[in-house]
Amino acid sequence: MLWTKGWYLRPNPKKSNIKIKPSYLLWFALFFLGGLNLFLFWQNLHLKEEIVSLKRQIVTLELREKELETQLDQLEKENEELLQQAVGALRKRTSYVEKIIRQLGLSRHFGALHKKALGGPYLPPQKEYEILLEKIATYISKFEKVPLGKPCRGYISSYYGYRRDPFTGRRAFHAGVDIVARYGAPVRATADGVVYRVGYSRGLGRYVKIKHRHGFMTVYGHLRKYVVKRGERVRKGDIIGYVGNTGRSTGPHLHYEIRRWGRSLNPLRFIRAERRLAKVAKVVSAR
């Protein structure tokens, strides 16, 4: 019986009476510590190997990073050179288009065309490239309002200026160009505009006159027939009639004139201008 705080407790029969000697505990502790020490030693070696491997990887990555930085610098340099070349090419094309604009007498209608000057804010190549590209695109879109190119397929048989009259043989002024084409070939408007007049005259035969922006007017004569009416809006490339032999004509052809503010101009300049601008437009659309 056990006495504890006034209570009688019976001895617990489940309790063992085996006593562990202190020497066994000591050996057990030494064995445990030795195993732990061996495990930590092995872990330490493993960690050292991993550290060495990681250091090698870091060195490899650093070398790779330097190599990539070198390649990136080289690519940036090449990209800068290509961009500078592209900007230079666009400058030439812009000057080329502006030269055509001046030759056609359209500087005032296309905005101020400044000559090269020193000074001004610095523009990064990329920004200048975008500005030049947008400027050329704007010029080309404005040219849609200017009569350019041939109104029909064929070859020019008689040019603008003084010539020998085919009927009288005398020297006379020819206010347009004559384009020989097959009878009935379609005749197209050379720019956006509004049909100003259609009709028949002794000299031009059946004709169409179209008013365009910037004071331009185009005249199409000797038509077999016309398919537009006065006041009708037409777009560049629309069919307005067909090649004929009406009026004062020696054979199927189209008499084509360009006038501006009532004064006749040489259509050949505008026909050639379309070919020159087509090259620039192709480059711009490709970009």
Task: Report on this structure.
The chain is an alpha+beta fold. It folds into 2 domains: 31-108 and 123-145; 155-282, Glucose Permease (Domain IIA). Helix content is 42%, strand content 24%. It has 3 helices and 14 strands. It has helices at residues 22-103, 125-142, 267-286, and strands at residues 2-4, 7-9, 155-158, 161-164, 171-174, 177-180, 186-188, 193-201, 205-211, 216-226, 233-234, 239-243, 253-260, 263-265. Strands 3, 6, 7, 8, 9, 10, 11, 12, 13 and 14 form a 10-stranded antiparallel beta sheet that branches. Strands 1-2 form a two-stranded antiparallel ribbon. A hairpin with a 4-residue loop joins strand 9 (205-211) and strand 10. Helix 1 packs parallel to helix 2 and helix 2 (125-142) packs across helix 3. The longest helix has 82 residues, at 22-103.
